[in-house]
Specification:
5 domains; 5-stranded antiparallel beta sheet; Sulfite Reductase Hemoprotein, domain 1; alpha+beta; globular; 34% helix
Length: 588
């Protein structure tokens, strides 16, 4: 064999990488093909390759999803996806997971079709885009769309032949679904009233867009150990729920005389994951707006290096924070950015302006004189094609053509002249939708449920509407209440932060024949922001058919027993212990 000195530096690097790759493959590792194993880790994806190699070297066993990512790059599947579509075939095996990188979810057995989730930074889109989505749904999917709890849209019932049609049509109206599923950074959320909110400290739209485009154009931001959420809250009337995200940036004002120059900053929160019973924690750090995206990048890079690739249940950033400690994590972040992280206690910042719990519905004055926005309630997030086109028409005829989606599965039309309010009310109602804040539907949130998700144990959207119909007939609500229905432990509808949260379960049907039916465990007293709290489980094993009556009894008890008309449902639940709340739920 020739002496190693005969090779150039580039050839040596290649051979060393080849040997390293073969060693990893022989160790049972990456499941890599010869071409992958023979390449030395290089380029943006090297962070992920090195993290997998360290896992194997440490005796860890990669989960199937990690092996799939190493064997086949998800963004090099276009020709394969086209061939499958032409043959009318759905993906098989781990390709089902890899398709999610394109926002395409094969949701069998719930539906033998694809669901496509979009990316809409900050939840803000234009009228022509909503019309375009209606056209795509009508031609290539089920004739409707769902608003998600990340201020996003998803299309459902896409046949095996149509994913390429959907993806190219989205691109042609300036939208994408790239990285909308699997182990990626999900849709970047921000304040839905950004730029129009009279009390906001800062408009979050530029930061949402900057973060969105940074993710799209950096390959290392894909293929994380697990999914990841980022939100920006500008301090406005409508919250962005930043405290439920892996990274939350929330705007604060620092007045003169503090240890930092006066101005508007973002405080940093880390580790929110309400499905695992954690809100994001304030890290004692303030950032200038231009520092937010570099800090987010650094946080994600450390997560890539340290996230668990052997256990999907422990792969979220919360568990890295638990293991390393928050201070160590911040120390590593600081080593990756070209500035020092500025510390400031939260007490040194001015209090955040108050959140209007249902400021996302009804008509509200904007900061622009004579202009109003209206929050439109969609029935548990669903809009048919005619409604989408009608909303787009209202936005273009009476507003600026801007539609804003919210994490409460509704939407906002902005920039309406005061003289047009009555016409807009009539146009919304003509679509079969409503804008009235005290409707029980204003705070009603439901995940997809078992009609479209294989993990869900109940028909959450259907049951949510049954609850709304029953309450509207039997309880005269005069204050807002949030009711969240989620189908499984993933808690996509965030039942832990609802005033009332229902998580689906299979429950005994009561016949004595050991049969089970759809049902729920009921949690009470959750909240976010100033009302931050995890809802407490109060009642188990409520059959779905009984849930409307049980929820109605709880709301009637609130109206009857509250201390005065100003006591909110959240305050009421804090004033009563679990035994008392259970009694309200079960009383005859």
């Amino acid at each position: 064999m020739s002496d190693m000195n005969e090779f150039s530096a580039e050839q040596k690097k290649y051979l060393e990488g080849f040997a390293s790759g073969i060693g990893i493959a022989r160790a049972g590792g990456l499941g890599a093909k010869t071409s992958t194993a023979a390449s030395a880790p290089s380029g943006p994806e090297s962070l992920h390759q090195e993290a997998r190699a360290r896992t194997i070297a440490g005796g860890g066993k990669l989960v199937a999803e990690e092996k799939a990512k190493a064997e086949k790059h998800p963004f090099e599947m276009w020709d394969e996806m086209r061939a499958n579509a032409a043959a009318g075939k759905f993906p098989k095996g781990t390709d089902v997971f890899l398709y999610k990188y394109h926002g395409m979810f094969h949701v069998a057995p719930a539906q033998d079709s694809f669901m496509c989730r979009l990316r809409i930074p900050g939840g803000i889109l234009r009228d022509f885009q909503l019309r375009g989505i209606a056209d795509i749904a009508e031609k290539f999917a089920g004739p409707y769309a769902h608003v998600t709890t990340r201020a996003n849209l998803q299309l459902r019932e896409i046949p095996a032949a149509n994913p390429i049609h959907v993806l190219t049509a989205l691109d042609e109206i300036g939208l994408t679904s790239k990285g909308a599923g699997a182990d990626n950074i999900r849709n970047v959320t921000g304040s839905p009233t950004a730029g129009i909110d009279a009390q906001e400290l800062i408009d979050t739209q530029p930061l949402c867009r900057e973060m969105h485009h940074y993710i799209l154009n950096h390959r290392e931001m894909y293929g994380l150990p697990r999914k990841f959420n980022i939100a920006f809250d500008g301090g406005g009337k409508v919250a962005a729920l930043d405290d439920t995200n892996d990274i939350g940036f929330f705007a604060v004002k620092v007045s003169e005389g503090k240890s930092a120059p006066a101005g508007i900053y973002f405080r940093l929160r880390l580790g929110g994951i309400t499905g695992h019973h954690d809100f994001a924690r304030d890290e004692g750090v303030i950032l200038a707006p231009e520092q937010c995206v570099p800090v987010a990048e650094a946080i994600v890079r450390i997560f890539i290096q340290e996230g668990d690739r052997t256990n999907r249940q422990k792969a979220r950033m919360k568990y890295v924070l638990d293991r390393l400690g928050h201070e160590e994590y911040l120390k590593r972040v600081e080593a990756l950015v070209p500035f020092r992280l500025q510390r400031l206690p939260i007490e040194a910042c001015d209090p955040r302006p108050a959140v209007a719990k249902h400021g996302h519905v009804d008509f509200h004055a904007q900061k622009q004189a004579g202009k109003f926005y209206v929050g439109v309630i969609t029935p548990v997030g669903r809009m048919d094609c005619a409604q989408m086109r009608g909303i787009a028409d209202i936005a273009s005829q009476f507003g600026s053509g801007t539609i804003r989606l919210t994490v409460w599965q509704n939407l906002i039309i902005s920039d309406i002249d005061e003289t047009h309010i009555d016409a807009v009310k009539a146009a919304i109602e003509a679509l079969g939708l409503t804008w009235k804040a005290h409707s029980i539907r204003a705070g009603l949130i439901a995940c997809t449920g078992n009609t479209g998700c294989k993990f869900a144990a109940s028909d959450t959207k259907g049951h949510a509407l049954q609850i709304a119909e029953h309450v509207e007939k039997t309880v005269a609500m005069d204050s807002p209440v949030n009711i969240h229905l989620t189908g499984c432990h993933h808690s996509c509808a965030q039942h832990y932060i609802g005033d009332i949260g229902l998580i689906a379960a299979k429950v005994d049907d009561g016949s004595g024949a050991d049969e089970q039916v759809e049902g729920y465990h009921i949690h009470i007293g959750g909240g976010y922001g100033e009302e931050q709290a995890m809802a407490r489980e109060v009642l188990r094993d409520v059959k779905a058919g009984e849930a409307p009556r049980v929820i109605g009894k709880m709301l009637a008890a609130y109206l009857h027993h509250r201390s005065d008309a100003q006591e909110s449902f959240h305050q009421f639940t804090r004033r009563h212990d679990d035994a008392a709340l259970k009694q309200f739920l079960t009383a005859n």
